[in-house]
Specification:
The protein has about 350 residues and is of the alpha/beta class. It has helices at about 20-30, 65-70, 85-90, 95, 100-110, 155-170, 200-210, 230-245, 260-270, 295-300, 310-330, and strands at about 10-15, 35-40, 55, 75-80, 115-125, 175-180, 185, 215-220, 225-230, 230, 250-255, 260, 275-280. The two termini are about 35 Å apart. Bound molecules: nicotinamide-adenine-dinucleotide (NAD) and guanosine-5'-diphosphate-beta-L-galactose.
């Protein structure tokens, strides 16, 4: 482990989003004195705004914007991407692939201004489709990304950008680190509007059912598809450990607690204290049948394992989404609201 020098400037792209917003807060809490946060959204729409950071609004698809963001930065966490859950990535493939502009230009900016380290947030969506056809899936090892047949659109872009990070290291000496995030959740994430992922969507739907008294829920697919979900605190610890490490190849960062979507709903129902009639929307976006993270490598190399189980993480997430929904209804601003 190298350890990041807290006196050197750090850039987080996508700092107005879910993981980026938390990462900026964590870097400041750890004592990093110069943290720059960049996002294309107007600041009023950032999920978290940290006053002690240098907050900039830039569209990082352009090279000039990336040069402006990267200038003078020693460490770059590149999290900006046009992305969302299954409902978004299955229907916005071209937009997802255009994130290649962000990743290309951020790498070019990092190289030009001599960044010491570069982090790329890749995804479990790089894994080959034929290894994810069963709900009782064998957990995915890093080598399972090849031969390549990733998630259409979003997954191809992530896999291509992984390769670009690798070649910037080989050809230009840029120290690039890559994590393959498996479905991350927690407070201050997207929970409505079409980009939300299953955990937040199910919390929102259960709360809506409770508030309306109409005790039923729509679930995409037959509910027997499986996933593992990683709580944001575990994601932050792993991200920092990977950035500081000497691991040059992409590595899994995810939970290995495999659950079906029906089991996810069971947990959220028990947090809410109610049971709902389930309606299955079989023609909704479903993605792969099963996906889990094999954590053998990250455990061996970094000693990293998730600390937060799904039941605990979902309880925190449910409470936060509940507060957002109550405040949206009453017009009051919830504590910690964006
Ligand atoms: P998010 O959507 O909350 O944050 C991404 C941010 O990037 C958004 O705030 C968005 O406005 C910003 N952005 C998009 N295009 C931009 C542009 N052209 N210029 C500047 N900013 C731009 O998503 P997140 O969950 O925080 O994900 C962060 C990263 O991790 C992304 O690269 C994502 O693909 C990756 N990832 C996330 C998950 C997950 O489950 N959350 C899983 C796998 C990979
Ligand atoms: O959206 P997601 O969390 O993405 O969906 C998981 C499963 O939950 C899917 O099979 C989906 O059909 C099901 N599901 C059931 N009901 C609902 O109301 C709902 N909303 C949503 N969104 N899903 C529902 C994600 C990508 C990310 C990221 C991670 C990496 O794929 O969308 O961008 O890269 O993977 O692990 P998921 O897990 O398929």
């Amino acid at each position: 482990m190298s350890g990041l020098d807290k006196n050197l400037p750090v850039l987080v792209t996508g700092g107005g989003g879910f993981i980026g917003g938390w990462l900026v807060g964590e870097l400041l809490r750890m004592g990093h004195g110069k943290v720059r946060s960049v996002d294309m959204k107007p600041q009023s729409e950032w999920y978290q705004v940290h006053d002690r950071a240098e907050n900039m609004v830039l569209d990082l698809r352009g090279l000039d914007a990336c040069r402006q963001a990267a200038r003078g930065q020693a460490y770059i966490f590149n999290l900006a991407a046009d992305m969302g859950g299954m409902g978004f990535i299955e229907t916005h493939k071209a937009e997802c692939m255009l994130s290649v502009l962000i990743n290309t230009h951020m790498l070019m900016g990092a190289r030009e201004f001599g960044a010491k380290r570069f982090f790329f947030s890749s995804s479990a969506c790089v894994y080959a489709a034929d290894k994810q056809t069963s709900a009782d899936v064998t957990a995915l090892k890093e080598a399972d990304a090849y031969p390549a047949m990733p998630e259409d659109g979003y997954g191809w872009e992530k896999l291509f950008s992984e390769r670009m990070c690798r070649h910037f290291r080989e050809d230009f000496g840029l120290i690039a680190r890559m994590a393959r995030y498996h479905n991350v959740y927690g407070p201050h994430g997207t929970w409505d509007g079409g980009r939300e992922k299953a955990q937040a969507a199910i919390c929102r739907k259960v709360i809506e059912a409770k508030q309306s008294g109409k005790h039923e829920i729509e679930i995409w697919g037959d509910g027997e598809q499986t996933r593992s979900f990683m709580y944001i605190d575990d994601c932050l610890k792993g991200t920092l450990a990977i950035m500081e490490s000497e691991i040059i190849d992409p590595i899994n960062l995810g939970s290995a607690q495999l659950v079906s979507i029906n089991q996810l709903v069971d947990i959220v129902e028990s947090i809410a204290g109610l049971k709902l009639k389930r309606r299955y929307k079989l023609d909704a976006p479903k993605g792969v049948r099963g996906r889990n993270s094999d954590n053998t490598l990250i455990k061996k190399l970094l000693g990293w394992e998730p600390d937060i189980c799904l039941e605990v993480g979902l309880e925190k997430t449910y409470r936060w989404i509940h507060d957002q929904m109550v405040s949206a209804r009453t017009g009051a601003k919830a504590v910690g609201a964006r």
